[in-house]
Specification:
Elements: H1 6-10, H2 18-32, H3 44-64, H4 67-78
Helix pairs in contact: 2-3
């Protein structure tokens, strides 16, 4: 998941409104939350992948949900300093 930019992680357009970002983030957080995923019979590697996915979604939501952080992220994205 770390090869995706924050917009791709949330499944939204770079032109999404704050409302759309909030809605997508909420849905992705619910879908990837470690407590919402069946963990029975999973290996340690699979459990670690679930936690990593949840953290990646949370990071994207936190950055894109904050106007100032989003502007900075967008600038770095345009400059090619992030994927």
């Amino acid at each position: 998941m770390d090869d995706l930019n924050f917009y791709d992680r949330l499944g939204i357009s770079p032109y999404a409104s704050q409302f759309e970002i909030s809605k997508a983030a909420r849905m992705k957080r619910i879908k990837t939350h470690p407590d919402k995923v069946k963990r029975e019979g999973m290996t340690d590697i699979e459990l670690a992948a679930i936690d990593t996915r949840a953290k990646a979604v949370g990071e994207a939501a936190d950055v894109l949900g904050d106007e100032r952080k989003r502007r900075e992220y967008d600038r770095r994205l345009r400059d090619g300093r992030v994927r």
